[in-house]
Amino acid sequence: MNETALLSLTIFLPTLGAFALLFFEKKAVEGMRVFSLVVTAITFALTLAMWKQFDPSVAGMQMQTSLVWIAGWNINYQLGVDGISLPLVLLTSLVSMLAMVASWSITKQVRGYLMLFLLLETGMLGVFLALDFFLFYVFWEVMLLPMYFLIGVWGGPRREYAAIKFFLYTLVGGVLMLIAMLMFYFGSAQSTATGESIFDLLTLMEIAEVGGFDRTMQITAFILLFIGFAIKLPSFPFHTWLPDAHVEAPTPISMILAGVLLKMGGYGIIRIAMPLCPYGTQYAAYVLVALGVFNIIYGAFAAMAQTDFKRLVAYSSVSHMGYVLVGLAVWKISEASGATVGREYWVLGVNGAMFQMLGHGISSAGMFFMVGVVYDRVHHRDLNKFGGLMQRMPHYSGLAMVIFFAGLGLPGLCGFIGEIAVVLSAWSFSPLLAIIAASGVILTAGYILWTIQRVYLGPEYKGPHAEELTPINGREASVAYVLAVMAIVLGVYPELMFGLMRTSIDTLTISLADGYDAVRVIGDQVGAVLSP
Amino acid sequence: MCGETAVKPRFTHMPLEQYIYTGTVLKWLLGLAWLLPLVGFAIEIFGGAWGKRLDPVAGGRKLRLAGYLAVFCIGTGFLLSLTALVVWKGGTGVALMPTAEAVSHGDHAAPDGGEHGSDDHAVDHGEHAGHDGSGDKPQQATEGDARGQSPAAEAHGHGEADAHQEGGGHEAHANDPYAAAFSGTYYELARFGNLRLTIDYYIDGLTVLMFCMVTLIATCIHIFAIGYMSDELTEDYEDHFVHLSGGRHFHRPGRFYRFFAFMSLFCFSMLGLVIAGNIFQVFVFWELVGICSYLLIGFYVERHSASTAANKAFIMNRVGDFGFLIGLMILWTYFGTFQFANVSPAGSPDAANGPGLFQMVRDSRGDLQVEETADEQVVMLQGSGSADDTSSPRSIPYWLLVAAGVGIFGGCIGKSAQFPLQPWLPDAMEGPTPVSALVHSATMVAAGVYLAGRFYPMFTPEVLLVIAYVGCITLFIGATIAIVATDIKRVLAYSTISQLGYMMLALGVGGWAAGIYHLITHAFFKSLMFLCSGSVIHGCHHEQEMTRMGGLYKKMPITCGAMLVGVVAISGLAFWIPLAGLTGLSGFYSKDAIVASSLAFMAGNPNHFLLFLVPLVTAGITAFYMFRLWFMTFAGQPRDQHVYDHAHESPRVMTTPLIILSVFAVGCAWFGVLENWILTSEPAHVAAGLTSAYHVLLTMPSHHAIHAMHHTAGTAALIAAVTGALLSAVFYWKGLVDPESVRKPFAGVHHFLVEKWEFDNLYDVMFVRPVHVVASWCTAFDKYVLDGILHLLSRLTVATSAWDRKFDETVVDGLVNLLGNTTYGVGRSLQVVQTGRLRQYVMFIVVGVLGLFVLLIMFFPRA
Amino acid sequence: MEGVGINGYLGVGAVLFVCGVVCMATKRNGIGVLMGVELVLNGANVNFVAFSRFGHLGLDGQVAALFVIVMAAAEAAVALAIVLSFYNNHLTVDVDRADELRG
Known about the structure:
heterotrimer, B: mainly alpha, 3-stranded antiparallel sheet, two-stranded antiparallel sheet, 29 helices, 11 strands, 6% strand, elongated
């Protein structure tokens, strides 16, 4: 297959599928479901094909497509994939497919649900593959709307509240991003060869690498972008949409939300905020790491106090995504010379952060799915009214424990690698923060084990609808098995993903260091000129 | 000698091909022994789940296939380990058996010949000879042997000299632990530039020894468990300890297969920990061991106490792991590697990976290179990084090395149930007894001691002092609580804590070999005692309270005898046997070595006298409570006739392992083999002792110093043990003094001990509740502050929009409407003109035109 | 000899125009009003032709006059049709009765 068309096809296949759903008879619910599943499966297969064509030893973008979209404003339809986006694309298509399998439990207005679901997948893939800032923004917003409806229509009792909260938060983030985008657009004119303003991310990165954006602009833009992405990540204090959205969203949407949408925050930071503002990143590095560490601890504490199963998992996401923030920002420079110190540890941190995103994508999607399985049966999520599921649903409980242990960060499962890589990288940045981050392991163990004890262990089930607790069926088991196997595979063979990311991340850190140096040198020269 | 030719001289005695060949064989032998249980686990867990549906066995009885499979896996592992031992010994040419002359030499008789540290010197000489590659050294060694006098004498001569001039030539008989070691990589998890996360192996005498010990004991326990867990074979298991809401007992299908699956997984984790070639890998398997213990302790998932104990065990271990993690971070940042030591000779594929931690922190003589910089002391790292690796730092601040050591030891504290993280271990007795035997006596808790021993070169004297004091406190706490415990398993649990304290103490006071020695001997007799207690519990139908037992020696003689072996061994008693002299069971020798080490340490550091007195006194307490256990259980009259009547000896499948373990508990320390074996891996700097003056003034005793104290210490320990045993007999066997009468005056103390020194309550108040409080604060913060702000904002927005609406409706709309209305009114008033009469319109036009003309003429008169 | 000057033509045109207007304003008969209209138009025509001859309009004035004549014819046709229709409805051609456009 022509590799340039591959990316476009991957992105828009779900949209085509969504429109094809219109031709189904209204009553053919099962047919529509199967059809949507096939569409997501083909999309997954396409991303696998992308993986096969991908050359991990090449640092730059591969399989690029570039078409003029709006010539007057230099907006291009530009796609490409590198070692940072490919793993996330794979994760997206995988989680989407699994969430589609989990969507059999949706019985209300199935056609609309499936269409929105597929549109959502297009938006998500687009965000990860777009190389034009404007296109990125468009996909970012495209993804928002289906999500709003999916929560707002198919959600739980407080769905309107949750949906509007989610929508507003994300929109605010989007607006901040828009401002930053325009800053770069108009700021780029003086640096491009033709003197035109551009949205092309790759060119903007090159400009940033040679110090084309001054300090003030970088810092301002970084703050704007960071807040925009931190809302999605989510990071304290912008995280309160997450528990509500998760609690109210239907199970498959929770899976997508935790498995993919949160990753967009991290992806945005590493793909846009950092390369475009190397100076801003370094300027804010300590705050970022401190914020990440705070997230780890805060999320873990908050999770411990929850009585709603889904809220607990949601807060655990806050805690886990804190590691991402820490890993990305452990960029230490020498105070005296401004040179990057111990870049290997930073590379380790960024790798760890990326891996943490993948691992969390698997484990949190799994956890939400596991919660969903019992919720579908007994229709409540009160942790204090469970117990004894190990007796009633042993097969399910065994799988659930594997996935929860993955969330706990047990070696051999996916959560461990990212966490340990991030924590190990942190000491060289700041011993104090590293110690606090490491203490998260105790709290994490605390809330997860306590949850397992309350839900799965014990002699008998304490809540209502005990008779509904039937063993999981084949469909549910297949989702759980895929996630559990993925958790183990990533845990014992992390090279699978590290191998993809290595070159890209290495290059990224070098270019960031150069970008910071360039701005610092320019700034010093200006200072030298002004001072006498 | 070694000092000058530090590069890699030791392999000159072994051709490279032979080294690589031996290393590869060992790697796969032990690797296989390590991975077999994992395979077993996978088959058991899936086979158990699926087999249940397929199992056609009538009457609901299930097969014991899972048990057999698990035994097969671990048993094969044991055979492989034995093979590995042979290969290792053959490949490296290490002599484990002391020579006949050495045996006959010594204050004590044959068995403790090894303790003199004599034979290891013989070994050393042989090795050093090899290093030099010259012929005279081996001659010297043979001469030494041939003289009919132990070469130890000669070595001690050196030692004496060393005692006076520290560091001056003590390398002469320093052990070279890398000489018989093999290292390499199985599998690379990830690589970031020069930083590698790998699954390595590091195989030396200690590794092989631990493999043999773990697999042997695990095999025995597995076999025992087939019998012990046989009541799980039913489809309808009634659990008498769980009461449902209706007052009924809890019923569930048996979980035979699951038990063995977890046991196999546990063995896999433990062996992975032992074979680990880097500290990161240790951490990985450390956690896996933790989770296995979680699964096994919480095996009776329906019992709330069991799941709570499992949580407690895991979380307390995680607290230790927090320290471990900090240690890892420091090492990683300053060393850039996790590997213990890279002993691959030049030319082998792994040699390029650079030196390991031990080689970096210590020079070939085992000394730290401390240098004073402007504001702090730094430890210079040896050969850190190859020429192309300039990024890795060359030194580490001294205090950070101490911090790293304490951090790593923090992990050991958690896993080995040392003060202050000891309370999880007694609770862990909630698991089935074979689990207690496997997890909590011989293997998992041993992991902490093993790691402390393995990581010994990284510990500075300050860290060792911490280790010594932690061990000292722990052994005292454990022993005192054991005096008042009445649950048979809990007594053993506390005794485990206490014995682990001994091991840590030994490591801390410089008795490296003594600590490891006790680790091995303790593993045998403690697993033996746990299995005996399991046999008792099984025979008494799950009665664990010693206050309801008594007189069981008639009912279960084999168990009774085996238990007596264990009790005598742990108490460190010895007997005068005419031909052999004073002979003890295994525990006697190892405990002797520990007490001697601590006495030697006290001699060098008089202000740390507690480190000798406490273990000495505790040796007496140990004998007291262990004999108390035995007397209460087996001797005297039955206290509960019902229990007694139903008691029976266990089947052969359970007693056979008892007998095997008894043999080892009795004799594993004899003939000095074990001691020699251990000493092959002793870190280079231990033998000579050393004086530290960096931060605290400490003198670590040398082998010679320890040996000099041996006689005194041994006598003192023996006296203490005999006293304890006699006292116990007075109280609990002969009943000469009623324990109650002693208890009364000390009711407060007794309560304090029964409450386990109030640790649980203290931790509950100090940690558990505050954590929950903070957690609820966090939630409240989210709910009231963050969401509050958000809701406030949204309300403000709504209020603003209400104002906006009002403005729109009154002002903006008002203006527009006014305009409209005015226009409308004007139109209305002009309506009357519109008469519809044609002629009138014409008149209007005419008049209008005329008017226009008039105006035109008036205003624009023709010029 | 001097022919008739422009003033003569303009005078005739003006008389015709005024007659027409007076006719429109005074006649109640619809046909009469139409006649007045014709007079007005023809008064204008005379002016056009006169300017064509004496002014700078050239042939344009005569073309305009022709246009007016054609228009007058068309207008007469339409107006007569309206009157006829009005008559059919009201049985009269009195324009004072046709006040349905009253506001």
